[in-house]
């Protein structure tokens, strides 16, 4: 993480000057009319040495690197306070369009990550449009943009639409139907995904907005979901809307290699990447709030305030599933969430969870009369192979987890998340096409 | 604004110990089970000298005062980065229930504003429930809670349901139908409103959640809306999703007395309060983004980057509506937004605007195929009299404003916002009932 909004790729132009009929200087001259000059700079717009505009800001100029030799950002990156997730349907029939889009996306994401404005060049007839500019003055806010490729990139209804079927990873399965799912079509599936995370909601919105503009003629929005987390300076494991710490046990260190990053079993273009399963999980907040803390703790298997396993005193105390009370009953119930989700109960498997809360107001669709909260958990899980990770774990949970009586999965998606682009001139997913 | 989460009302109990059959100590003992004690405090929960739990936090312990001799917080309070707005329908037929709810709400809001947990005592048969606790560790985050009373408190279909009809302020009119409105029932109207603003979305969510729980049996959710603004440390006028600074001309100083705070023309219980008109304004982002910056600037009447009036160089340069170019044409178009919204074009009237952006994903309801952004502006306007403020100003704008071609008003509401509660033992709206 750098402290300044200046990039490691200073020499790279963020706005292609010749390919779209609008030079960067022409673009800048059009920005703000008479205000360009001292006024524009006072307003927080400045030029990097590459001439690309860089958004001003305060301490929010902290950046996360877009490029790298490992996984994409936004997976093990310390969770930013806001996410904006978008799923797109691909409309083009040309493989070249898809390649060009992914290339343009990576170029733009690298600029956005260091707080630069971009100039979307849609694939239609129009020339590049200027950035929408709602982020001027906001800084880069630790923006990460994480791209994913869904099953539809490889095959749709048996059709090998882009000649990529042979490169589909075995781990990128179509998700099975889970018991008690109530999936909403408008929150499920998609061919391409953008996960933008930032410490400012407007910065995350802006990133997705500009990337979607670039996709015109190639892909269009299918669904999006906003999520929030704690404020950036919060410390410790964040609490979800059930009031419990969420994410205490998460793979780290060598466990990441074992359980999260795709290895030699995946095709070469995916190695070092991961597979993302997204679930939009409605929480019956009204019902949950009628339960005593003690009852809630029995459901979860942890103490609410401390996050400690039942019977223990600190959050990171070992989860002892064999502990019993004086009557010989298990301290952590047989249907407690932490028991059924634990590696011990899942053949040693772990998934990397990255949770955000969502609040979409109230809805008759998920509620009754009066309206119920349309709120819950936007659950991102990353794993080396969903056939060993999310799928079997959730098969168990959906059937037996005491928590399931308070939750309904309303959205679902699986994508392959390739490793990061190596550097300027490279793009996420590049080796899929070569 | 204080820097610490400790309150000026230390001596006041936040959880009524005797009225609901659950003592505060009993409540605390139930929190976290065995973890209560050193573990609970380490986890960020601590007790004020009043024994009421206070949520720990970092610099986010900054507070805004709930009590005061002037208007409620959240109106001229420097805009927090998040808002969560809730509108409720009153279901009780007893005036006493309504009074009790407003009293309980003020007591709880005062506690929430200093980062305390609360223990909602619903009006039904159940005893008080513990706080939902998702804010432990988050601090008070400058939370403000602003209560409003809609027309339905005074009269519904000609029925004086609570014997308050005679006290209805003349300024609390039923809003007229405006040209081109496309109001959604689920985002319009309501008898009671809660506007929670905070520098953390989870803190704002929690406040509304706990207050709604208290309303059980008296009022229920009608609709809610989440909004976001810039991060708390941002300086200057924030930008809306159209990329323009929004709120440059806003009443201040003596203008607040003249245009915002209710005076002697309002009933006594409203003096020093204000009237809030809320509009949920969809922005056709896809269309807006196809327009050149120059065209956008013509629509607004200001430069995009600097915020200066067209032809000027700085945001706060005077808005000269008579300025012309070398051909004698007005620099600011006759249908430009800033012209038609200006005091000069509105008999000198001003309204206090407090804008948040919203992003509810994508929706077929407001879009076409493919789905369109369900995003835009959550517009709070405060005024001394909506018959002189929002209503005539927007009548003009809806018909003629160049900006209207990019916006659709989908939600609407008017409420009376009484002055703040004077201090502990008092509550917002108290003098309406005495």
Textual characterization of the structure:
The structure is a homodimer of 434-residue chains. Chain A has 2 domains: 24-239 and 423-433, no CATH class; 281-415, no CATH class. Chain A has 10 helices and 10 strands. Chain A has helices at 24-30, 38-42, 95-113, 201-214, 254-259, 285-288, 293-300, 337-341, 390-400, 430-433; strands at 45-47, 53-55, 82-90, 144-149, 192-198, 219-228, 274-283, 352-363, 372-383, 407-417. In chain A, the strands form 3 sheets. Chain A has a 4-stranded antiparallel sheet, covered by helices on one side. In chain A, helix 3 runs antiparallel to helix 4. The relative contact order of chain A is 0.17. The interface between A and B is large, with 92 and 91 residues.
The helix/strand series of chain A, from N terminus to C terminus, equals HHEEEHEEHEHEHHHEEHEH
Overall number of domains of chain A: 2
Strand content of chain A: 15-25%
Which secondary-structure class do the elements of chain A indicate?
Answer: alpha+beta
Sum up the overall morphology of chain A in one term.
Answer: globular
Quick check: average pLDDT of chain A?
85
> How do the strands of the widest beta sheet of chain A line up side by side?
4-5-3-6
How many strand segments of chain A? 10
As a whole number of angstroms, the C-alpha radius of gyration of chain A is 23 Å
Total helices of chain A: the number is: 10
Assembly state (oligomeric): homodimer
Share of residues in helices of chain A: 10-25%
The largest pleated sheet of chain A is described as: 4 strands, antiparallel
Q: Give the uncertain stretches of chain A in residue-range form.
A: 1-54
Largest interface: A-B, 92 and 91 residues
N- to C-terminal separation of chain A? 31 Å
């Amino acid at each position: 993480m750098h402290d300044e909004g200046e990039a490691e790729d200073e020499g790279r132009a963020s706005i292609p000057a010749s390919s779209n009929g609008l030079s960067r200087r022409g673009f800048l001259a059009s920005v703000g009319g008479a205000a360009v000059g001292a006024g524009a700079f006072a307003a927080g717009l400045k030029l990097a040495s590459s001439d690309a505009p860089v958004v001003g800001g305060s301490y929010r100029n902290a950046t996360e690197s877009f490029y790298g030799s490992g996984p994409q950002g936004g997976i093990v990156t310390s969770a930013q306070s806001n996410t904006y997730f978008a799923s797109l349907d691909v409309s083009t029939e040309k493989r070249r369009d898809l390649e060009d889009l992914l290339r343009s996306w990576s170029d733009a994401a690298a600029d956005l990550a260091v707080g630069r404005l971009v100039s979307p060049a849609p694939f239609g007839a129009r020339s590049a449009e200027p950035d929408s500019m709602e982020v001027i003055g906001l800084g880069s806010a630790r923006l990460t943009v994480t791209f994913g490729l869904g099953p539809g990139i490889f095959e749709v209804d048996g059709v090998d639409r882009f000649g990529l079927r042979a490169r589909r990873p075995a781990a990128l399965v179509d998700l099975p139907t889970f018991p008690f799912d109530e999936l909403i079509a408008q929150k499920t599936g998609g061919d391409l995904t953008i996960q933008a995370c930032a410490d400012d909601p407007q910065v995350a919105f802006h990133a997705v907005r500009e990337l979607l503009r670039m996709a015109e003629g190639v892909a269009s929005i299918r669904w999006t979901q906003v999520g929030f987390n704690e404020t950036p300076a919060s410390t410790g494991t964040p609490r979800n809307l059930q009031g419990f710490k969420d994410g205490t046990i998460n793979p780290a260190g060598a466990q990441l290699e074992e359980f999260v990053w795709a290895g030699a079993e995946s095709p070469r273009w995916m190695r070092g990447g991961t597979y993302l399963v997204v679930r939009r999980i409605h929480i019956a907040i009204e019902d949950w709030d009628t339960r005593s803390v003690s009852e809630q703790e029995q459901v979860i298997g942890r103490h609410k305030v401390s996050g400690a396993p039942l019977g223990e005193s600190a959050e990171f105390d070992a989860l002892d599933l064999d502990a019993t009370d004086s009557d010989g009953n298990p301290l952590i119930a047989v249907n407690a969430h932490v028991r059924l989700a634990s590696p011990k109960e899942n053949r040693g498997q772990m998934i990397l969870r990255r949770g955000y809360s969502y609040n979409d107001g109230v809805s008759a669709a998920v509620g009754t009369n009066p309206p119920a909260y349309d709120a819950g958990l936007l659950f991102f899980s990353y794993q080396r192979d969903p056939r060993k990770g999310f799928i079997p774990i959730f098969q168990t949970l959906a059937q037996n987890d005491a928590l399931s009586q308070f939750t309904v999965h309303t959205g679902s998606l699986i994508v392959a998340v390739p490793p990061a682009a190596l550097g300027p001139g490279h793009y996420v997913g590049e080796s899929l096409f070569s």
